[in-house]
Structures are given as C-alpha cells and as structure tokens.
Write a structure and sequence with these properties.
2 copies of one chain form a homodimer. Chain A has 178 residues and is mainly α. Helices cover 63% and strands 0% of the residues of chain A.
DNA sequence: CTCCGTTGGCTAACAGTGATAGCTACGGTA
DNA sequence: TACCGTAGCTATCACTGTTAGCCAACGGAG
C-alpha cells in the first residue's frame, strides 16, 4: 500500500533529521534507508515538500500529546494552537532545524545574551521565559503576514503587554479586546 | 571594503527572498545581482549560512524598531527578546520562509482551523492571538533544546497558563516563580 | 489461459546548488 | 622596481530534487 510507504519515508526522514540535521535529509538518503532508490519515492509522494509537510503534522501531534501530560488546561490551548499552526507549515524548520552555530553569527551580537531579558523581569526566570516564548511567537505573528493589518496587531500587542508586563501597576490596565 | 560587499550581498539576498521566496536565494543569484560571479562571494563571506545569519540579525533589528513604535514597554521587551533570539538563528526560516501551500498538507488536518482557538477564549480574538503567539513560542521553547530539562519547563508552562488562562479563577493562582 | 492496466521498482539524465582550486589583474607599500 | 594582498575570474567537483522511459510482477476480465 502506498500509504505505508509514505509513513515509512516520513519516519526515516525524521531519523535522519534528528541524527544529522536538516542537510542530511535528502531524497536519496531516505530512499537508501528504505532499500530503494530516490526516483521510486516519487511514486508515493509528489515532492519533497509534501514529505516535509507530513513530518510537520506528525511532530505537532506529538507535541500535543506531550503538552497534554503537563495539564488539561494547557492541553486545551495546545490543541487549539496546533489547529492554527497546521496552517503555518513553515513551523517545520523552527521545530526541527539545528541552529546555526554561534560562531557563524556576525561578531558582537552574541554578547548581548540572556542578561537583558532577565533584568527586564527582575530575575524572575519563569516569567522571563514565558515572555521570551510569547515574544518569539509575536515575531511570526508580525512577519507571517497571515493576519489583518496594523490595527488588529496593535490590539494583540496590547493584550500581550497587559498579560506580561513586569510592572504590576500595568496589570490593572483594561484589556483592549474585552 | 569587504564589509560593504557583505551588507550589499545581504541586501540583495533579502530582495530575492521577499520577491521569489527562499528557493530563489542562491549564491549565484545574489552574485548576479551584484554584477559578479558566485565564487567571488566567498572572498567576503565564509559560506551561505553566514550570509543568512547576517540576514537574521538585520531582520530582528528591524523588528525591534517596529515594536519600539508600538510603545516603550513593548520596546523594552522586544530588546530583551532580541538579545535572546539572536542566539537562535534558525528563527531565520520562521521569519522569512513562504509557507508550504495548504493543498500539500495531509488531507483532513487543515479542516481543524481557527475555531478551536477562538472557542477556548470565548470569542476574545485579541487574547486568542496573544495566546497563539505565546504557544507558538512554547513550541520552540520545548523543541529548541536550549533550556534545562523538564522541571524548569514545567515552571515556564505554569507561568504561561497563569498568564493566559481563559478561566478567571485560574488568575488568582500563585505564580510558581514568584 | 490470456490479455491488460496498474503498481512500484529501476537506470540515465538534467539543470541547478554550494563550494573549492588555481589563475590573473590591480593598488598600495617598501 | 619588486612585492604582496585583495578581489575578481574560469573550470570543476560532488551533490541536490526531479523527470523520462523502461520493465517485472500482480490482479481481474474475457
């Protein structure tokens, strides 16, 4: 059955990915581990991007299960998130790619490390991490270009600030959407 | 000056990226737009990944400026975030890649669209978006494998839930880091 | 049994990729 | 003038995703 071969290919792709990084995931390498040759893969999968899309879906599903173990409220959110994220498959690289080594970065930028974020939250590491996560998401919120223009983004930003502001008095500020 | 040629190459790369997507960003294409040939680029840049790293840094700096316009508190957060994010250059693909077309996804998954997230927040679109952003960040928090093991992640998750829980009574719950 | 279409493999090949080797020409300095 | 580093070039390498075209095996229809 074709479906069987597809899931097998996705599994092999994931093995290669986790073992040797994204550059190791080639159609020839996948096929070799399946005991066939690369062109035969195209009898089961239209192209490499489709294979990667399957990988995304599997990874996000697993993530949902992992989050479910962490608590039911979080699982609800994760399920909702997954539904949205499935429409943003370029998450794939975010979730799987090995970061570029630090010494490849332009000189100097890496010196501004974790300190400013911790300082902004006065040493509260947990909130600093949550804020990092949220801000990280905001990047794609802005750049993914999947949302309405600036007016709505402003509201999302305001909600974000209200939820995460390190200054307690900002907490009482009325939320824009409510 | 070599530095000049590098920034020029990064600019050209960005043009190609925004015009025709990530696959259009090849060393040959970049060189062609600069009026030179691909091998000459390697006199200024060690490899393509280094060039991409410059692109990340530039994009994140611009994002910081954009966020600064949205308000000073947010700018503080953005600056702190940027410092952390600069250590995660695989953000590059997240920020720039064109999503894989929906019809390449495995059949069925795309049907679970925005509705569950909106439902979880009882129609409050702004908070739903902020939660999406935060959850999006959480994905990389978990998978980037840059943080200490489960114990600390649990704390970050708890902080995240406390901040974004759609149920008001959860708000009073003591934050784990404080 | 015999034909026939489908499935799933194969080899050969193509255009394009990042990257290296080795050459040449210019500009500044001793 | 002699020299040396910078920055371009051509030619080339190994490898990538992908297609074309061929072929063996299987299952069902006449």
């Amino acid at each position: 059955m074709a479906e069987d071969r597809v899931t097998q290919a996705v599994g092999v792709a994931r093995e290669l990915l986790e073992a040797d990084g994204p550059d190791a995931v080639s159609m020839r390498a996948i096929a070799a581990r399946m005991g066939i040759r690369a062109p035969s893969l195209y009898k089961h999968v239209p192209d490499k991007a489709a294979l990667e899309a399957h990988l995304i879906a599997a990874a996000l599903t697993e993530l949902g299960h992992a989050l479910r173990d962490a608590g039911p409220e979080l699982a609800d959110l994760a399920a909702a998130y997954r539904s949205w994220a499935i429409g943003h498959p370029h998450l794939y690289t975010l979730a799987t790619a090995q970061p570029i080594p630090r010494d490849r970065l332009p000189a100097g930028v890496e010196d501004q490390a974790a300190a400013p974020l911790l300082a902004a939250f006065e040493g509260d590491e947990d909130r600093a991490r949550a804020a990092w996560a949220a801000a990280h998401g905001l990047v794609s919120l802005e750049l993914a270009d999947r949302f309405p223009p600036d007016a709505d983004l402003d509201a999302a930003w305001a909600a974000f600030v209200a939820a995460f502001s390190p200054r307690p008095e900002r907490r009482a500020q009325p939320r824009p959407g409510a």
